[in-house]
Write a structure and sequence with these properties.
Elements: H1 68-86, E1 105-107, H2 116-132, H3 166-180, H4 184-200, H5 210-225, H6 232-239, H7 244-257, H8 266-282, E2 289-291, H9 294-318
Antiparallel strand pairs: 1-2
Helix pairs in contact: 1-2, 2-3, 2-4, 2-8, 3-5, 4-5, 4-8, 5-7
Length: 339
């Protein structure tokens, strides 16, 4: 435990997960014994992943790595801006609201409480760019919609060649979130699990598998994030024609491909949230702004005072001075000098 190599199930235990051949030599244990020391006992630091092998390129595990969806969207964003510049296309009337002396607009979406509708739109847009700008069509049978249909309707023959529109992806995800009453935070975790699956299992989300991959990510995110998780049978009532056995099998394969790594650090969650906001800004999808009312201002002021008092008490507790009967020294605070 403690790194991506050690987990509950060994990577060699599943036939679908194989260790890259170029890393096997680096993980060999040194069995040379020294004459001065007794039997060789491997230190815990020797079992950690070396710095040169640390998966820094995996954005779902490391906050410093760039998210995949934002990188895939930049190509279309640059082409759109270049086309508008060449064709002298006007950006149109300004729709963004700006604060003034009389009216202050605030964004009700925060990293701890994102706006549900806007977050789902951004997440589905990220999935859209994943499908549109995919590298290839690597997939597995468990996620193939033809072999495991989600409904009794006939799957079109060109189901694996036609890319879905953003509206179609949004309606699919929105239906699941509305019926299961999931939160906006769950949508962000869904995107983290989706990119983690694509990285760990070396898959591509494409027209033939996007529905089942998104469904598996939502299913897992709802169980990990929400206190009252939605059961697999509940999703069967939403989708109607899918069986519980199929849901269980897909969830089991999803966990195995993730190597049972379902941890989402707070730094990774925050990175995905702000990258989704950047994606929205690049695609002219503004988050809702509301005028600051008197009641909202009083509530924000009360929260601000509560936090100020809390940190003031912590700062007082952290200051320690020595007292003696001969030289009693009290706590003195010096004023800051701004230059």
């Amino acid at each position: 435990m403690g790194n991506t190599v050690a987990c509950c199930v060994s990577p060699r235990g599943s036939p679908k997960i194989a260790r890259p051949p170029d890393r096997q030599e680096d993980y060999q244990v040194n069995t040379d014994l020294s004459e001065d020391t007794g039997p060789y006992l491997q230190h815990i630091s020797d079992r950690e992943v070396p710095d040169d092998l640390a998966p820094e390129s995996n954005p779902s595990d490391h906050a410093r790595a760039s998210t995949i969806f934002l990188c895939k969207s930049q190509t279309d964003v640059r082409d759109k801006r270049k086309s508008n510049h060449i064709n002298h296309v006007s950006p149109g009337p300004l729709t963004k609201k700006y604060s003034s002396c009389s009216t202050i607009f605030i964004d009700d979406s925060t990293v701890s409480q994102p706006n549900l509708k806007s977050t789902i739109k951004c997440v589905t847009l990220a999935i859209y760019y994943h499908i549109k700008n995919r590298d290839s069509d690597r997939s597995l049978d468990i996620f193939d919609e033809k072999k495991h249909p989600l409904s009794r309707e006939r799957v079109p023959d060109d189901y694996s060649r036609v890319d879905p529109e953003h509206k179609l992806i949004y309606r699919f995800v929105r239906t699941l979130f509305s019926a299961a009453q999931l939160t906006a935070e769950c949508a962000i975790v869904t995107l983290v699990y989706l990119e983690r699956l694509l990285t760990y299992a070396e898959l591509d989300i494409c027209p033939s598998n996007w529905k089942r991959i998104v469904l598996g990510a939502i299913l897992l995110a709802s169980k990990v994030w929400d206190d009252q998780a939605v059961w697999n049978v509940d999703y069967c009532q939403i989708l109607k024609d899918i069986t519980v056995e199929d849901m269980n099998e897909m969830e089991r394969h999803f966990l195995e491909l993730l190597q049972f790594n379902i941890n989402v650090p707070a730094s990774v969650y925050a990175k995905y949230y702000f990258d989704l906001r950047s994606l929205a800004e690049d695609n002219n999808m503004s988050f809702p702004l509301e005028p600051l009312s008197k009641e909202r201002a009083q509530k924000l002021e009360a929260i601000s005072r509560l936090c100020e008092d809390k940190y003031k008490d912590l700062s007082k507790a952290s200051i320690r001075r020595s007292f003696s009967a001969d030289n009693l020294v009290g706590i003195r605070r010096s004023h800051a000098v701004l230059s």
